[in-house]
């Protein structure tokens, strides 16, 4: 069975500081990993994904994520946070061998960037 | 491309009423999904479809029904609304290929009183 854990319900960071939103996963085989962002009263927007290759993945709005197979983690990072980054962030996983099964989402982490 | 569209945006139902949440995508995606989002609970999969005429249950299908007569449309039906179905409902779609991301609609906020 596939699962995703986002251990922090809330992350607070000062504007201009680096931010990290944590995600760990569990799959039977190799994973496809995704990050989404949800702004208030909006649907989820795709940020970035890891398929294979370079462990550091770059995505939209200056976000990046690092895949770590040994720690089964896929943490989302940004070097310098903006107030406009304040939103709800979801990590999701799909097992590479399972075909187009629905993504399994974490519970989400609310990021608050303080000016 | 409009992407994934959902109607209505908001709806208030009385207990026992029924309604259909509409979802349409114009990206020719084979796979479509319905999720509900409750505060602090993340997304839970209700139903999904791998193509026209094929649907399957997700994690929380009770109280809902779906159909998929065309590639574009994937309506979600609530037959006897209950307060426990108060939630925000999201439709999503994706291309064939397990490495592809899902595209989400803007959501329908449903309140059952």
Describe, in plain words, how this protein is organized in 3D:
The complex is a heterodimer of chains A (115) and B (113). Chain A is mainly beta and 115 residues long. Helix content of chain A is 0%, strand content 52%. In chain A, the strands form three sheets. In chain A, strands 2, 5, 6, 10, 11 and 12 form a six-stranded mixed beta sheet that branches. In chain A, strands 3-9-8-7 form a four-stranded antiparallel beta sheet, with no helix packed on it. Chain A has a two-stranded antiparallel ribbon with strand order 1-4. In chain A, a hairpin with an 8-residue loop joins β10 and β11. By secondary structure, chain B is mainly β. Chain B contains no helices and eleven strands. The radius of gyration of chain B is 13 Å and the shape is globular. The mean pLDDT of chain B is 94. Classes of the chains: A mainly beta (115), B mainly beta (113). Chain A binds chain B through residues 9, 32, 34, 36, 41-46, 49, 51, 90, 94-96, 98-103, 105-108, and chain B through 4, 30-31, 33, 40-43, 45, 48, 50, 58, 90, 92, 94, 96-107.
Write the layout of secondary structure elements.
The complex is a heterodimer of chains A (115) and B (113).
Chain A: E1 3-5, E2 10-14, E3 19-21, E4 24-26, E5 31-38, E6 44-50, E7 56-58, E8 64-68, E9 73-78, E10 87-95, E11 104-105, E12 109-114
Parallel strand pairs in A: 2-12
Antiparallel strand pairs in A: 1-4, 3-9, 5-6, 5-10, 7-8, 8-9, 10-11, 10-12
Chain B: E1 4-7, E2 10-13, E3 19-25, E4 31-37, E5 43-51, E6 54-57, E7 64-66, E8 76-78, E9 87-94, E10 103-104, E11 108-112
Helix content range of chain B? under 10%
Task: Indicate the multimeric state.
Answer: heterodimer
Structural class of chain B: mainly beta
Q: Provide the succession of SSEs of chain B.
A: EEEEEEEEEEE
β-sheet strand percentage of chain A: over 45%
- The shape of chain A is globular
> Secondary-structure element sequence of chain A?
EEEEEEEEEEEE
Structural class of chain A: mainly beta
């Amino acid at each position: 069975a596939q699962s995703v854990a986002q251990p922090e319900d809330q992350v607070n960071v000062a504007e201009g500081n680096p931010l990290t939103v944590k995600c760990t996963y569990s799959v039977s085989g190799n994973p496809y990993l995704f990050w989404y962002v949800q702004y208030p009263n909006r649907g989820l927007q795709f940020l970035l994904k890891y398929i294979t290759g370079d462990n550091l993945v770059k995505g939209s709005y200056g976000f990046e994520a690092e895949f770590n197979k040994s720690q089964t983690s896929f943490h989302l990072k940004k070097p310098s946070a903006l107030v406009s980054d304040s939103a709800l962030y979801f990590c999701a996983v799909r097992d590479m061998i399972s075909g187009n099964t629905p993504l399994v989402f974490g519970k989400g982490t609310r990021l608050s960037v303080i000016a | 491309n409009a992407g994934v569209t959902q109607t209505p945006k908001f709806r208030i139902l009385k207990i026992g009423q029924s309604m259909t949440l509409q979802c349409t995508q114009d990206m020719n995606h084979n796979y479509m999904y319905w999720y509900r989002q409750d505060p602090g609970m993340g997304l839970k999969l209700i139903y999904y479809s791998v193509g026209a005429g094929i649907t399957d249950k997700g994690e929380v299908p009770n109280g809902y029904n779906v159909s998929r007569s065309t590639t574009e449309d994937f309506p979600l039906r609530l037959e006897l609304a209950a307060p426990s179905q108060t939630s925000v409902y999201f439709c999503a779609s994706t291309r064939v290929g397990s490495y592809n991301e899902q595209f989400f609609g803007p959501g329908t906020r449903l309140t059952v009183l």
